[in-house]
Write a structure and sequence with these properties.
Helices cover about 40% and strands about 15% of the residues. The chain has about 525 residues and is an alpha/beta fold. Helix 20 crosses helix 21. The structure holds ligand NAX and potassium ion.
Amino acid sequence: MTELLSAAQMRAIEQAAIASGDLTGLELMERAGYGVVAALLAEWPDLAEGRGAATGVLPRTPAFLRTETEARRALVLCGPGNNGGDGFVVARLLQERGWEVAVFLYGDAAKLPPDARVNYDLWRVMGEIAQWEAAAIIGQAGAKVPDVIVDAVFGTGLTRPLPPEVAAVMTGLPAGRLVAVDAPSGLCMDSGRVLGEAAASAALTVTFHARKLGHVLSEGPLHCGALRLVDIGLGRTAGEDVTLAGANAQLGKGSGQHKFDHGHALILSGGQGRGGAARLSARAALRVGAGLVTLGCPPDAMAENAARLDAIMLRQVGGEGLAQVLADRRINALCIGPGFGLGALQARHVAEALGSRRALVLDADALTLLARDAGLLAMLHGDCVLTPHAGEFARLFPDIAARLAEPATRGPAFSRVDAARAAAARAGCVLLFKGADTVIAAPSGACRINAAVYDRPAPWLATAGAGDVLAGIITGLLARGLGAFDAAATGAWLHVEAARSFGPGLIAEDLPGELPKVFRRMRL
Ligand SMILES: NC(=O)C1=CN([C@@H]2O[C@H](COP(=O)(O)OP(=O)(O)OC[C@H]3O[C@@H](n4cnc5c(N)ncnc54)[C@H](O)[C@@H]3O)[C@@H](O)[C@H]2O)[C@@H](O)CC1
Ligand SMILES: [K+]
């Protein structure tokens, strides 16, 4: 599992490592600075060539002597804490490579924390440090265009909006190769939200030991650019509090198994002409490996669905309710919501489904019905999964959504993880909060993030019916016996993998058919 840390967890890991005597804060800072330099040279290999590219004692090549006349230039912006300390290390290492380095400090050198102060002093032996002056910094960046600008102003320690003179720089710098040390200054690393109004927008962010929550949540990815992770030798220390959703190796089927060993999912559909959404869910449930899938629909929709379904079975679910169908105890997972309808009969079916205590995905119209009826909400149980997008979430949990919508002015700012956890605890069931940073939370506080960002974007998932497929995938996984939390997290991961596997041009119908390729790649 890939962990995602809060700022406080990262501090605790660092302090524990230093207290153990295994390494010092200075060593960590040196490795962090070294990691930034290595990462930026790897990102932009042209910077590793020419004058300013240390070649040790090797002779310069004739080509180099002919073409390269100017040194590489870096502008390094340092802040008042240990992030600034990393910046002084970067400045020193780049100058040792032959670069021309200009350093600005925001804050008072006399108040730097001890490790940052040591690196400040080391740099002072090699070069100047100019006091922060927004116009001078922006002027320098514009006139002597640097090859890279290093943002080492604030990292995980930022708890307030950027001071105006820092914000002016972060929003006034020319577009280019801005490298953020650990975090783009201005971003809350617990929530991925901009504190106040301004944050740096980096081309590359280099972080240490583990990704922080802010790198993947909310606006974080927009501000980080590319994200690189550097090992600074802290080893594995954290418990897995929030992790990235990932592949589930348990999804294979044993050769001696029967279809009933893989569960029976029931997908409830709306009336005539409204069955497309439920059919998408049903196909996804079958493709993800449920042994049997039945679509339950009102009498008027039987003919339409019969004409469109083969491997998926069809049952009439009329005014008499669900009880008859659910008498079959082999039906072990339900999906209600896609194209379902919002009438009194549908509300009754939701109540019956909840009352049956079967594993249950509630999506789309079912979420609207829940939001309208506190009695239904009170029936939710631990085997339920709610799959709201932001609008549905706000209808279900208006106070939590309002808190999330408030401007972020103090760190740690209220995050989508906080919101999903609060909602799951209140609902008493698993909640999947959709987004590019889908958050899956359980009432216990367990939390995973399915991040479709950085090298895993899935922009073509923004298409009609994609949510119906996700609901179906999760229902199929519930039928196969996964617990609600695992089914939701694994389902979200598979959904993005399927979208990425298909690529541009994707429509919802393509998603179920793409799952076999994903499974093959997983070597199921
Ligand atoms: N935790 C670790 O293991 C390591 C941390 N390192 C670096 O240390 C950083 C964290 O250092 P710090 O905890 O010192 O935090 P920062 O350097 O991010 O900033 C903290 C300083 O900024 C001040 N501050 C916060 N918000 C402010 C605002 N809006 N206006 C003015 N001042 C403000 C604080 O009072 C404090 O002096 C990390 O991001 C990373 O770059 C690295 O050296 C490697 C190891
Ligand atoms: K920074």
